[in-house]
Design brief:
Layout (H helix, E strand, L loop, with lengths): L2 H8 L1 H17 L7 H25 L1 H7 L12 H20 L4 H19 L6 H22 L7 H22 L2 H7 L4 H5 L1 H25 L4 H6 L1 H16 L3 H26 L1
Length: 281
């Protein structure tokens, strides 16, 4: 099997970000005692389950990728469909094995849910528009919760839930806007995205509302709980980005506007992740 293609299909950068989100969730929940072993196992779990979801996505999208991304490992023939199944199975086993070593039932249940949602999205839910968007966005929030559960610290009454909520809402906004750029292709594939069903302008409004909702949830900790100065000052940056994105997609609700917002939203989410790291210190 092609080693480079095997690495490419799991999208290691995306998986590393999920792994780091788990670590952030671990520290934000303020555990009574820090366990390097639990941190390492949490990162491995996040990375492996994300890798599983990436391979499953490529497996079900192989026919679409033959047209849109023919150089990807599966459509290019660098990896066979059976090879992809093998990689998916291996990463799934690694993810469950790592979380099982934590001896935490809650953590195992979260991994099982995340894995099921990843498969369900690619198998069927992506065709149902907003429902699929919600599943994708949940994958951005679940790692924070998982990290908190593995730490044994505070999950409910902490910054953790606000982080997860903000990531989820920003993720839904990006997915709704992202689909605006794929309307024609989605119609041909039978994908009922919000944009293809209700039109670009309505999708722009919905995407903007989710971006602004993410801003609100990121600011609530300033009023409701104690946060450090890094979070107080740093949260201004991603919030400014998301306000700008909401304005931009509302003023240009077309394919080009959606493509621009889609790319910029990743920067805003990365800024948010950096702020979350600062909030965890």
């Amino acid at each position: 099997m092609n080693l480079r293609a095997s690495v490419s299909i799991i999208r290691p950068i995306n998986c590393a970000m999920i792994g780091f989100a788990v670590i952030i969730g671990y520290f934000v929940s303020k555990p009574a005692a820090v366990s390097p072993t639990a941190i390492a196992l949490g990162f491995i779990t996040g990375f492996a389950i994300c890798a599983f979801s990436m391979v499953v996505n490529d497996y079900y999208d192989i026919e679409v990728d033959r047209v849109n991304q023919p150089t990807r490992p599966l459509p290019s023939g660098q990896i066979s469909k059976n090879g992809a199944i093998g990689i998916a199975a291996l990463t799934l086993v690694v993810g469950f094995a790592a979380t099982a070593l934590l001896m935490n039932v809650g953590a195992v249940l979260i991994v099982a849910l995340y894995s099921l949602l990843a498969w369900l999205y690619d198998f069927r839910a992506k065709k149902y528009g907003l429902a699929g968007n919600l599943i994708v966005a949940s994958s951005l929030a679940i790692p924070f919760i998982y990290g908190g559960v593995t730490s044994g610290g505070q999950v409910i009454a902490s910054l953790l839930l606000f982080m997860a909520s903000t990531s989820f809402l920003a993720g839904v906004g990006r997915e709704v806007v992202k689909a605006m750029a794929d309307v024609e292709g989605d119609k041909k594939r039978g994908v009922r995205s919000y944009a293809s069903v209700h039109g670009l302008k309505s999708a722009a409004v919905l995407g903007a509302l989710f971006f602004l909702a993410a801003v609100v949830t990121s600011l609530l900790p300033l009023l409701l709980i104690q946060v450090n100065v890094v979070y107080k000052i740093g949260v201004v940056l991603p919030d400014a980005a998301f306000v700008y994105l909401a304005y931009k997609i509302m003023t240009r609700p077309d394919v080009k506007g959606a493509l621009s917002v889609k790319k910029t939203a990743l920067m805003g989410m990365l800024l948010g992740l950096i702020v979350f790291i600062g909030g965890a210190i």
